[in-house]
Each structure stands twice: as structure tokens, then as C-alpha cells.
Automatic annotation (TrEMBL):
Domain Tyr recombinase: 1-43
Protein name, as recorded: Transcriptional regulator
Coiled-coil residue windows: 40-67
Alphabetic keyword roster: Coiled coil, DNA recombination
InterPro entries: DNA_brk_join_enz, Integrase-like_cat_sf, Integrase_catalytic
Keyword Coiled coil belongs to the record: yes
Domain of life, per lineage: Bacteria
Length: 120
């Protein structure tokens, strides 16, 4: 810690509490608002806020994906038990490369092929 570092900290804390830049400028003894902006760590705070929101979004998406996986697993279990001794179709009659290309060029067609394959 240095006295100069303390100036950054106190200026940022006062700014976060809503004190005007003019008041902070007076406290720091600067004549220009531009000089005071150097002390305020607004960008760091904004980046932290963005990170927090992105983390919340990540958690929400992960939760949604986990729910979808559970629905799919229970659906697969139900389909397996409905078929009795028949095994689920797990192998596709298409190559991985074909599926990847189709997913890029015509995802609707790929979805239809997949649905037909698993429901027949």
C-alpha cells in the first residue's frame, strides 16, 4: 500500500457510493475532471459487473441443459422399455462427415432424417 494507491481506492469507493466527480476532484486537489477519471476504476467495476452477469447466464444455461438431458434420458428409457427386447437404434446409416456437412447446410433436413431414423 502506498499513499498514492490509497487515493485510487478512496476515489473509487466514493464514486461507487454516488459522490459527484466534482466533489472527488475537490478532495483529490485536481483542477480537471480528466485527471480524476484516472483515479476512478469505473472500467474495472463495469468489467466485474459484466463477468457476474455472464456467470449468471452460464449457470442458467447449464441448468437448462441439465434439465433437457434428464428429459432425453427419461424419454430414452421409456422408448427402450416400450420396445421390449428390441435394442434402440444407436448407429446411424450416415457418416459423421455427412452429418456434419448436413448440419451446416440444411439442419432442418438433418433433424427430419434423425427423427425418421429413431422413430422407425
Amino acid at each position: 500500500m502506498t499513499p498514492h494507491g490509497f487515493r485510487y481506492t478512496i476515489a473509487s469507493l466514493l464514486d461507487e457510493r454516488g459522490l459527484s466527480v466534482e466533489t472527488i476532484k475537490y478532495l483529490l486537489g485536481h483542477s480537471s475532471v480528466t485527471n480524476v477519471d484516472l483515479y476512478l476504476r469505473r472500467h474495472k467495476r463495469k468489467i466485474q459487473e459484466i463477468k457476474e452477469e455472464l456467470t449468471k447466464i452460464e449457470v442458467e444455461l447449464e441448468g437448462s441443459l441439465n434439465k433437457d438431458r434428464e428429459v432425453i434420458k427419461s424419454s430414452d428409457r421409456a422408448e427402450f422399455s416400450n420396445q421390449g427386447s428390441n435394442k434402440l437404434k444407436t448407429e446411424l446409416p450416415y457418416s459423421e462427415e455427412f452429418i456434419l456437412q448436413l448440419s451446416k447446410s440444411n439442419p432442418e433436413l438433418l433433424e427430419k432424417l434423425m427423427m425418421d431414423h429413431y422413430h422407425n
